[in-house]
Amino acid sequence: MDINPPKCTDIYYINFLIAASNVFSCTEAARCYPNVANAPSHDSFTRLLQRQPSDTESLWREVKNYVKPEEGCLIVDDSTLDKPYAEEMAFVRRMWSGKHHRTVKGIGLVTLVWTDGKTVIPIDFRIYNIDVDDKTKNDHFRDMLDKAEERGFNPKFVLFDTWYASVKNLKAIRKKEWHFLTRLKSNRLVNPDNKGNVPLETVDIPQKGRVVHLKAYGFVKVFRIVSKDGDTQHWVTDVQEMDEAEREDLAKKSWKIEEYHRGIKQFCGVEKCQARKEESQRAHIMFSLRAFLRLELQRIKSGISWFESAMKIRRVAVTAYLKNPLYTLN
């Protein structure tokens, strides 16, 4: 028996996410589609989202040709996708938002990206859903690093913030024979002189850094960075020979994931899915990351920013309207 191919493919939806500006629904995707024979309906787009696998293999199949697993750095971080008006929507819970500096309703997205310092490419992600899968963000952290190792990655460094700097995570990285750079809270216990553990904030740390023994882990090198406004950060690495110049370079690379978060929210509609079902929300996030890949590759190839790439699409629509305005006074 012949099976008719689906009217709607993932590329249709990805292209819609790149071109759309405010509304990112299946209904709007169908409305925007060119008026051609057998154009996909909103039901076609809905079925597209609902039939996607729950793994991240389709993302990996696209990005694997644009990363160098033996080079660069892996960065892990999470971001809250704002869902202030969501009712009975899958994955939505109250959680802390770094953007709003308070607890908000949203979806917790944990992403693993690869960077060489110039480009940033998402290679894996997880959705925080502890009530269903009983996995913490730290569990997802280790799961994604395991998957990266399975896919052949051997990064120069793994970069992450204080949330993921648990001893269990640090030991998981050491077991892979990888290196890390992260930040520690000021109350983490270290032994600087073999006289006992003391809070990190009480230790004298010169500008060039200092090797100390991190409780329950082993010897690490710590750097104390004090900003102009007086904010103090403690950076730590397992590479005891690291100097301040290398630490600073890696710290700059670690901020690439913050740029990525801004990109998927502002230009790929990752927060805007209105569907309630798990399958649809997960698929929409997946497609948003694949849309980001296209904008990022265009930026690297042409030097055109994500913003300018989006504006080039929208200018065409504005120009067409200016040629033939629909709303005029008689």
Automatic annotation (TrEMBL):
A single GO molecular function term of this UniProt record: DNA binding
Protein name as catalogued: Transposase IS4-like domain-containing protein
Domain Transposase IS4-like: 71-291
InterPro entries: RNaseH-like_sf, Transposase_11
Domain of life: Archaea
GO BP term, pick one: DNA transposition
